[in-house]
Amino acid sequence: MSDITVIINGAVADEIDKMLEHKIERVGQFAENKAKENMQGHNRSGILMASISHDVSDLTTTVGTDVEYAVPFHEGHGSFSGVPFLRDAVYNNISEIINILKG
After folding, report:
1. Is residue 64 within a helix (H) or strand (E), and if so which, with residue range?
2. Are 79 and 33 in contact (CB under 8 A)?
3. Contact at 8 Å (CB) between 30 and 97?
4. How many CB atoms lie within 10 A of CB 89?
5. What string of DSSP letters covers 32-62?
6. pTM of the predicted structure, to 2 decimals
7. How far apart are CA 99 and CA 103, in angstroms?
8. What does the alpha-carbon distance between residue 42 and residue 72 come to, in Å, rounded to a whole number?
9. Which of 1, 20, 35, 72 measures 20 to 30 Å from 78, CA to CA?
């Protein structure tokens, strides 16, 4: 069997990148929303929940927060077991995220 190489460039490659970026943006927004939902009833001041955001760069989405106490709140400390609001936003919604990427 012989190999065939197809090179996608120019306008077609740009359209594929735009489509992928749009889907990854949707995944980021979805995960951000789910992370904020996971905070319901756990963050009295609302500062941590309000700080959760997402960013898309180089076909990658990052969801997180820059609030200083986010890590111990997420991971737990002492007798507090933590609220893994970011991790659960992704791991508890894998099928929905896959559907966004497929759609």
Report:
1. strand 60-64
2. no
3. yes
4. 22
5. HHHHHHHHTTT-SSSHHHHH-EEEEETTEEE
6. 0.86
7. 6
8. 13
9. 35
Q: Rounded to whole angstroms, how far apart are CA atoms 102 and 49?
A: 29
CA atoms within 13 A on the CB side of 34: 19
CA terminus-to-terminus distance, the chain: 34
For residues 46 and 7, give the distance between their C-alpha atoms in angstroms, rounded to a whole number: 49
Tokens 């898309």 locate to 56
Range 17-26 average pLDDT = 95
Which residues lie across from 64 on neighbouring strands?
53
Averaged pLDDT, 44-48:
89
Q: Give counts: helices (H), strands (E), the chain.
A: 5, 2
| DSSP one-letter code for 44 | S
